[in-house]
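Example complex used in Figure S2.
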Amino acid sequence: MPKVQVEAVVAATNARISLMHIAKLSNQSTMTILAVGFFLLSSLFSPLHAAVLPEDRADIMYHRYDGGGMVIDGPSVLVRKNIADKISLAGNYYIDSVSSASIDVETSGATEYTEERKEYSFDASYLKDKSLINIGYTSSTENDYDASSVRFDFSQDLFGDMTTVSMGYSQGNDDITQTGNEEFSEKLERRHYRIGIAQVLSRNLIANINYESIIDEGYLQNPYRFILIDRISAYELDEERYPNTRNSDAVSFKLSYHLPWSAAVKSRLGYFTDSWGIDAASIELDYSHKLKNRLLLDLRLRYYQQSDADFYANVFDVNTALQTFVGRDKELSQYQTYSIGLGASYQWNFRGIIDKARINAQIDYMLFDYENFREVTKATTASYGIGNEPFYNFNAYALRLFFSVWY
Amino acid sequence: MRQLKKPLVLMSVAFMLLSLSACGIQPWVKPYHRANLANEVMQYDRDPISDGYMHHVRQARESARGAEGAGGGGCGCN
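Predicted assembly (485 residues):
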């Protein structure tokens, strides 16, 4: 491979690893932004050279999630185009069509519902020597939840492009309403701070370390979920009460190793902790194999576990139900997830306006196994008695069928 | 003020690394030896449209979040 081409693809790899997002200014983050701006300017005018923007590419995808009484599917379109090799613009349109009769719906006695979520996002990347700056905006709307976020990310190649340092900030503002309750209106603000380092370790090994801190302030519970209070002969439902702040820290460590043939093994370790008392860890192992520059095969294994939140309980008694914070979301409980993923892509190469095209299929099969969240329905409570229902578990799959074109 | 500490520490780390780049450290893997590293099988997020979707699927069902290398718009999925 010609040297220039190698540098270009390596830089593209580094750019991918970057991260980055960002920001709408709040008073508290103004100093941070000024600091980022200072570093950006100092880097932009340093005598460095040559990184590369993401590739020109368009994708159209059908996605489908099915499991736990929920079916969510819809289309997604992503288009990216470079301008004068300095700026790259990207736009994404995404729809989730939801049909839900999940265990939460059953427990609350509600009926199956359907809804739709639409999401638009735009990103602009600017390349200057070995620095890449990205700004982006995302808007998500559904009948009872509007979310918007802005992001700013910056990455810089260092040490002969052996190291890529990236950092970013994003801020989200959500407006929450409740179907059937005109008076309900709440807000949520999110701030994300992140930094990452990608390091080339050898001709075949590259490592990444990423850290992200997220601060949430506002309405964090779900207005459609309830706690269960044991009234001896029956359950009483009451509203959840969550803290109005949540601070979390997450770190991940990734290794990608190229095997002697055209294949790679990749691993990812993740650790998470938050101010609600939830600790989580995950491990992922991937294998990707390329055959004759046309066929790409993927195999993924993943394990995830988390502890429960300090204020979580499957059932509260009349006394504990009075404590300041109470919650029964299964996402706050103690559980683990096992997943296996398979993927295959077939590529056609062209000479002309289109460089190549690829058809792709990816599917991940997941098992959610809860340790202190019980499957409470009228039937299970009648069969097993209050507080003795079986622990909940369910299977799900996430399917992606997509077609990609490079130009 | 407390919330500013963390981002400022991150900025300081990044600044130190940027400063180190001026120290003349020589790369031990030359650019023309990086063909394997550039092979797309090495990429974690090879297809942004698909990988972004999986981040979203997990984000809605697991409490852990962040350090994924991808941004999100947030939603109230139940």
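Residues 70-78 of chain B have pLDDT under 50 and may be disordered. Residues 27-63 of chain B form one domain.
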